[in-house]
Write a structure and sequence with these properties.
The chain is mainly β and 129 residues long. The protein has one helix and eight strands; from the N terminus they run αββββββββ.
Length: 129
């Protein structure tokens, strides 16, 4: 009986570990391109929606249009520049021509259709739309 339970647990662990949704990869050329919706954890209520649309200028940089639709503050857009780190595991975002005030996010998960960023203790979640 214990052997069956152990075999079941090992099988469940291996199947969970092989899930492509848990695959953690770095962002590669062209894989960030397109529209991403910022999503929230199930218990978080949002007043609107935010889309990030990435346009690649080179394999590691480009522009990002942040399109905000907010019930309280209205609708607005910000055009930002982005730069990926050489290993594809960090992204820097800034507005204007000067990157000195860029925010740097660690890319902790990227599957091609889901993405998770981290800065300090805050996490941002995205789904490709």
């Amino acid at each position: 009986m214990k052997a069956r339970i152990l075999l079941f647990l090992m099988t469940a662990f291996l199947l969970g570990a092989c899930s492509s949704d848990d695959e953690q990869i770095a962002v590669t050329e062209g894989s960030l391109e397109g529209r991403w919706l910022e999503v929230y954890e199930p218990h978080v209520v949002s007043e609107g929606i935010v889309y990030y649309t990435f346009h690649e200028d080179s394999p590691t940089s480009g522009t990002c249009l942040i399109d905000v639709h907010d019930i309280l503050s209205g609708n607005y857009q910000n055009e930002m520049n982005y730069q990926l780190s050489d290993d594809g595991k960090c992204i820097r975002l800034w507005g204007g021509f000067c990157a000195t005030n860029a925010q740097e996010y660690e890319i902790v998960k990227f599957t091609g259709h889901r993405m998770e960023w981290k800065i300090n203790d805050q996490k941002l979640y995205f789904e490709r739309r």
